[in-house]
Amino acid sequence: MLSFWKRYRPFISAGIQELITYRVNFFLYRLGDVMGAFVAFYLWKAVFDSAKQPLINGFTLSDMTFYIIMSFVTTLLTKSDSSFIIGEEVKDGSIIMRLLCPVHFAASYLFMEIGFRWIVLISVGLPFLLVISGVRVMAGLPFWQVLASIFLYLLSLLLAFLINFYFNICFGFTAFVFKNLWGSNLLKNALVSFMSGSLIPLAFFPKVVANVLSFLPFSSLVYTPVMIVIGKYNLRQIGLALGLQLFWLLVMVVLSQLIWKKVQYQLTIQGG
């Protein structure tokens, strides 16, 4: 265990150092995210004002406000840049240095991502969770219920992060064949944002579409954790949602191994 930690600790440190080094870039992106959250709030406020009824598809304006905030936080905490990193390393040839390291190829990216997300969790996630918890307790919810929802949210968040990571690893492996993933990464991110519920809650889709999207792995990335933390799922629904997340995590891990076996011998170094 100690040797494992010594082997992969430098990758966690590298992830933290990269985020700290480019912290102005990090804050500018977060400012853009906050502006996007404000735009989403005022759009939904206009929808509720025009509807002239307090409840739409099981959401009040207060519920939707919490959803927007926690969707913003959850997207940050489950985000994975591994497909983009692999694509860039294949394009400039630096991927060969990672392949020569005596570590598991995918695990090296995983521990870098852990370094990224750890800083985001401390600087963004925990403050938002404390504020949300305080608001819900002051609104009259029992403290133990709020605490339980936070615990289940963090468990769901961990599964969501791992699902997204392995999905991006699978996508990133295609750079070994297609050589450049910049454009396809943009398309992938747009589709995932739509299907994960980060833009529009899946409850607002037509029932058939919502049922299909709810079963796909993308709903596990944002929609499931957010619905748990804002209290929209009962215990049975939470159990089913966590079970589905665990299922998709296993599928993604196995799929990443199968794709890696197929593509690792198709790498062509373009840079140097």
Could you describe the 3D structure shown?
The chain has 272 residues and is an all-alpha fold. Helix 2 runs antiparallel to helix 3, helix 4 packs parallel to helix 7 and helix 6 packs antiparallel against helix 7. It has twelve helices and no strands. The chain is globular.
Radius of gyration, whole Å:
20 Å
What is the average per-residue confidence, as pLDDT, rounded to a whole number?
84
Distance between the termini: 35 Å
The helix content is: over 70%
**What is the tally of beta strands?**
0
Succession of helices and strands: HHHHHHHHHHHH
Structural class: mainly alpha
Helix count from the secondary structure assignment: 12
Portion of residues in beta strands equals: under 5%
Q: Outline the low-pLDDT stretches.
A: none
Shape: globular
Quaternary state of this entry equals single chain
Largest sheet: none
